[in-house]
Amino acid sequence: MKDKILLTGVKPTGTPHLGNLIGAIDPILNFSKTAQKTFVFIADLHALNFVRNKENLKRDTYEIAAIFMALGLDLEKSVLFRQSDIPQVPQIASLLMNVTPKGLMNRAHSYKALVEKNTSAGVDPDDGINMGLYTYPILMAADILAYQADAVPVGKDQKQHLEFTRDIAGSFNHLYGKDLFKLPMPLISEETGIIPGLDGRKMSKSYQNVIPIFCDEKTLQKSIMKIKTDCKLPNEPKDPDSSTLIQLYTCFATAEQTRQMRHLFETGGIGYGDAKKMLFDVMNQKLTSPREKYTDLIHHPAQIDAVLEEGARKARPIAQQTLEMMRRVMIG
Ligand code: TRP
Fold it and tell me: Which CATH number belongs to the domain containing residue 12 in this structure?
């Protein structure tokens, strides 16, 4: 990873939760420790195909930037910026359109799912689908290719988009000269698995079962108390493998602490109330200090703006170089 350029984008569509922290943000921070350079941007242009409220967009953008800053993204080595601050990216996307088969976009999972929904509802297959959504994968390819990223940490749901990026880059190279674009590798962290939410289903905004990363201590405590359990008594043995509490505990505790907790479950040595208190302790221990930084940043958005502007200043010339290379080989 030492000589690799990492890049990832986070869409500003709602307050990030602990599932996002464990499944996406933590892996990015870990990968970035050993990478040569990491680009992290807030993909606000990608949100535009359905976010219609610019105040929400702005709030979510600040929240994501503040989360990365509070969790210690190394700003010496990493570039944190807002996608829309780099006008070269949509220009690159518009050039890439010409080497992207329409059929590729027709095959995109997210587009196809909407078409299927429309079809079974008996309305026009493209009802409610705008071109921002349809061409989403091309803008994403532009994001990645603009900075010649080697590796892209993403969730499983983005795997197809990475394949499209490789296809689009390959098609460009085939037409205009081999090795003009590097083909980026997806970095999909499998081992974290699914992070359960308050009701035991996958933690997800759409299930309304999330715990925001930096909610205040009281809210964190209350949320943890709400986590669903069965009604086993404290001295009854409990199955650690099917317990949401254990799954969450494993994400925050050391291996040794997890081993002890599992043992307490199996032997009927702990009640759910006490297990929840212990879960709160390990979570809060990890979150307290970054939460303070986060709260301070959110109340001082000028500090966040300064970091994002500095990031854009570093990112822009790199995207500009890519754009110039494309112009040179495509237009002359
Ligand atoms: N599509 C990604 C998501 O929904 C966000 C994103 C936009 C992205 N551009 C990117 C991720 C480039 C990785 C690389 O999560």
Answer: 3.40.50.620
The CA distance from 153 to 6, in Å, is 7
DSSP 25: I
Q: Does 312 lie in the same domain as 290?
A: no
- 332 token code pair: 């002359």
Domain check: are 259 and 323 in the same one?
Answer: no
- 89 closest CA partner among 331, 332, 312, 304: 312
Give yes or no: residues 29 and 62 share one domain.
yes
pLDDT digits (tens, 9 = 90+) for 292-310: 999 999 999 999 999 999 9
Nearest CA to ligand 1 atom 11: 9
Q: pLDDT tens digit string along 110-168?
A: 999 999 999 999 999 999 999 999 999 999 999 999 999 999 999 888 999 999 999 99
Residues 162 and 219 in one domain: no
- Which neighbouring-strand residues pair with 196? 202
Q: Is 319 exposed, middle or buried (0-12, 13-18, 19+ CB in 10 A)?
A: buried
Same domain, 63 and 182: yes
Domain that holds residue 234: 214-295
Ligand 1, atom 4, lies closest to the CA of 11
Q: What does the pLDDT read at residue 1?
A: 82
**Alpha-carbon distance 84 to 319, whole Å?**
12
Give residue 106 CA to ligand 1 midpoint distance, Å. Answer: 19
Average pLDDT over residues 311-320: 98
Phi, psi of 79 (to 5 degrees): -120, 115
203 part of a folded domain:
no
Q: Which tens digit of pLDDT belongs to each residue from 68-93?
A: 999 999 999 999 999 999 999 999 99
11 alpha carbon – ligand 1 mean position (Å): 7
Show the ligand 1 pocket: residues with CB < 6 angstroms. Answer: 7-9, 11, 43, 46, 140, 143-144, 152, 154, 158, 161
Atom of ligand 1 nearest to the CA of 46: 7
